[in-house]
Design brief:
homodimer, 184 residues, mainly alpha, 9 helices, 70% helix, DNA-binding
Chain lengths: 184, 184
DNA sequence: AACATTAATGAACAGCTGTATATAATTATT
DNA sequence: AATAATTATATACAGCTGTTCATTAATGTT
């Protein structure tokens, strides 16, 4: 069931301007140094308008991250029955394409949002892959294995981005793919 | 070469009072809700005194975390040639003993400090354990394997603490030990 | 005990935050 | 086109932050 109620144009316009302003400012300074006043000035809206849509600047960042995670979910749907190494590739390419956003965001106090959302997303993706009834993980704790895999994925992505993507997406996808196969 | 120059008693007294105040306040509210004014009032020092010792409240938290990491380094030195499952145990026990501090800290915007410091510490511990010249990791990228292992360790510890330690330290140590053996 | 050094204090400051409110402008609907 | 509802604006406010500075207090060393 899709929501068909029209959203007031003013809301879309304000939110677009605000998010666009953040992207612009991110290429000029660290997210932690960007003030709500900065964003309002750049977006050409009243500072109060930002608080009308978001709790604070971290909530704003959180929602921008959420939109990226949704993009990655869509990418994921199209690789449903590939091998890990192959299915990983679109994600690493997507991260690379949005390097400025992700690197600036990860260098800020809002990095927690990304980690939380990406973690939740990956838990959904991998939770059915863990088998402790037979095979290599027989007898182990499924919850701990799932956390082990997912946090390593989140962590390696964060490492890759904050270290200026030292390897190309296809190398990352392949190496991470091998590590996933070994543990799942 | 140990530093023998005496530290002014007032410095020790102020810093002790400040750190003690933070610990106290942590049992009353989330770290993000604690203000520098709160800390100054509780520690019975002038607000300016805190800025005399620390850049801001996150720098203060960072230094408190650093002291815990140092404790864990000391624990580590005594388990140098044990199996992973055994060597892990003192860490998980230490984390359990300081549950209030770690859980409150991880629920804040300062969680990044812990992750960074614990990550750096583990890199030092594990960097010599990766062998890509023979064995299970032959031909793989050593840097990526190291990041994979270390971030999963940091992540699983964070998961364990923020989820109210759902398993006792010995179970965690054993399960994580198995996962480490498999990948190193 | 007297001294020079260092640390702590209190007050003042500009700037940002988050909230509230009255007013104006825009929108969707009739 | 007129209307009611919604959104945006400007302004004001109290509280916190991080810095500065002159003054006072405590410390370690002669």
């Amino acid at each position: 069931m899709t929501q068909v109620t029209k959203v007031d144009r003013r809301i879309l316009k304000s939110q677009e301007a605000i998010k666009h302003a953040v992207i612009e400012l991110m290429s000029e300074k660290k997210f932690d140094d960007i003030t709500v006043q900065d964003i309002a000035d750049r977006a050409n809206v009243s500072r109060g308008t930002i608080y009308l849509h978001y709790l604070d600047k971290f909530d704003l960042l959180d929602k921008m991250i959420g939109e990226h995670i949704n993009e990655m979910k869509i990418l994921c749907a199209s690789t449903a029955d590939m091998e890990f190494a192959e299915a990983n590739l679109p994600w690493f390419e997507y991260l690379e394409q949005n390097y400025l956003f992700f690197s600036t965001m990860l260098a800020s106090k809002g990095a927690h949002s990304f980690r939380r959302q990406f973690h939740e997303f990956l838990i959904e993706e991998f939770k059915d892959e863990v088998n402790i009834l037979e095979g290599k993980n027989y007898g182990l704790n499924g919850e701990i294995i799932l956390q082990f895999i997912v946090t390593s994925y989140v962590g390696i992505v964060e490492w890759w981005i904050t270290n200026d993507m030292p390897y190309p997406p296809d190398v990352m996808a392949e190496q991470v793919g091998i590590l996933l196969e070994r543990n799942l």
